[in-house]
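Possible regression after last week's pipeline update?

I re-ran a chain I had predicted before the update to compare outputs. Posting the input and the new output here so someone can diff against the archived version. Not blocking, just want to make sure nothing changed silently.
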Amino acid sequence: KLKVNISEVALLALVGPNSDEERKQLTSYSEYTGDQKRSILYLTVSLLQTVRDATSTPSAKKLVRKSQGNDVDLCLRLWQELMQTHVNALRAHSKLIANDVLEDFEKRFWVAATTATSACLENLQNILP
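New output (post-update):
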């Protein structure tokens, strides 16, 4: 479990660590400015790409192949979380495209997010015993 919730990480990315007044004002994505939306989408894709890159390393392969007990549970949870993230990203992307409510940078985000989650899943599948 994370020691902070996801919204705290997002707020830190958007307004920095010392902006208590701004933190209180931001409550939903629709209220973000264009720059803030781009920042949060960039952070999200960067995190997904980091997971993708980490799961493609020889160290990850060795770790997964030698995992036992709690480590196996961790691999399974990672697989499940990535699968759920991928399904949710595909669903959201198709729904938003159908409603034609996306800015160009948001369209690029959804393509990048689904590509990154797909690559993460493929990497994990390739290193599982």
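Follow-up from reviewer: compared with the archived run. Residues 70-99 form the longest helix (30 residues). Marking as no regression found.
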